[in-house]
Design brief:
The protein is α/β, with parallel strands linked by helices. The chain has a single domain, classed as Rossmann fold. Helices cover 40% and strands 20% of the residues. It contains ten helices and seven strands. A seven-stranded mixed beta sheet has the order 3-2-1-4-5-7-6, with helices on both faces. α2 packs parallel to α10. It is globular, with a radius of gyration of 17 Å.
Length: 245
């Protein structure tokens, strides 16, 4: 797993974020993923500072996380204290977990793993029978850019490629859909064509003027009421829900 570059990127993101609710991307995404949960137990792989684990616990789930980066775990303790259970563990060592779960989530993680098919098989052993694996990955191979490489992505995924790898690993596809259509065109133009980095300031800046607050409000409405309910056929990410056969 490409650790250093992705960890540094996440540390910068979380340190500049005043609260999860200000991050229209992840706040809406987490809500969408929680709607796919079946049962009461959850393991979040690549938990970061624990934002998603915290959301799940508030929903009444028995949720734990694993995270390989100790600095992210420490930052999470500053935010949530010791309320959350996020263990320091590399995904490669997931076999050392003795429990099985009704749900496992991997949000923006699989693309950082060189041998993704091997990991998908390992994860399956930690699911209950008919347990659910919920994955979010960057979509569209043709969008792979310098940004992807710099933050530790080995690849982006086409819908057929992701389905094929999951089915080969022994999962049954329940749902697969695109997400974040709004981000597609800015990413294509700036990151892929112009080779210019898109700032995450709109998501993370603690000081926002009227214009930024208005844009953030409108994006929130779009994600919550449109993309949450409708698969528009393309987007920056792929959300996939599968079950253990």
């Amino acid at each position: 797993m490409k650790k250093n570059v992705s960890s540094k990127n996440l540390q910068n993101l979380y340190q500049n974020l005043d609260k999860l609710e200000s991050d229209f991307r992840n706040n809406n995404l987490y809500h969408l993923i929680l709607c796919q949960i079946k049962g009461k137990t959850l393991l979040d792989i690549g938990a970061g500072v624990g934002h998603f684990v915290n959301k799940a616990v508030k929903k009444g789930l028995k949720a734990v996380g694993i995270e390989y980066d100790k600095e992210l775990i420490s930052l999470g303790k500053k935010i949530y204290g010791n309320k959350l259970e996020v263990k320091n563990m590399d995904i490669e060592d997931i076999e050392n977990i003795t429990l099985k779960f009704e749900n496992i989530t991997m949000i923006d993680v699989l693309e950082h793993i060189k041998d993704d098919e091997k990991i998908l098989i390992k994860i399956k052993s930690k699911l209950e029978e008919s347990g659910r694996l919920i994955i979010l990955v960057p979509a569209n191979n043709y969008l792979y850019s310098k940004r992807d490489k710099n933050i530790g992505h080995y690849r982006r995924y086409s819908k057929n490629q992701l389905k094929s790898k999951l089915e080969k690993a022994g999962y049954k596809i329940i749902k697969i859909r695109y997400w974040n259509m709004l981000g597609f065109f800015p990413y294509l133009i700036f990151e892929k064509i112009l080779n210019k980095r898109i700032s995450s300031e709109l998501r993370t800046s603690k000081k926002k003027g009227v214009l930024k607050k208005t844009i953030q409000y409108l994006i929130n409405l779009w994600l919550k009421y449109v993309e949450h309910n409708i698969n528009l056929g393309f987007g920056l990410s792929l959300l996939c829900v599968v079950e253990k056969k």
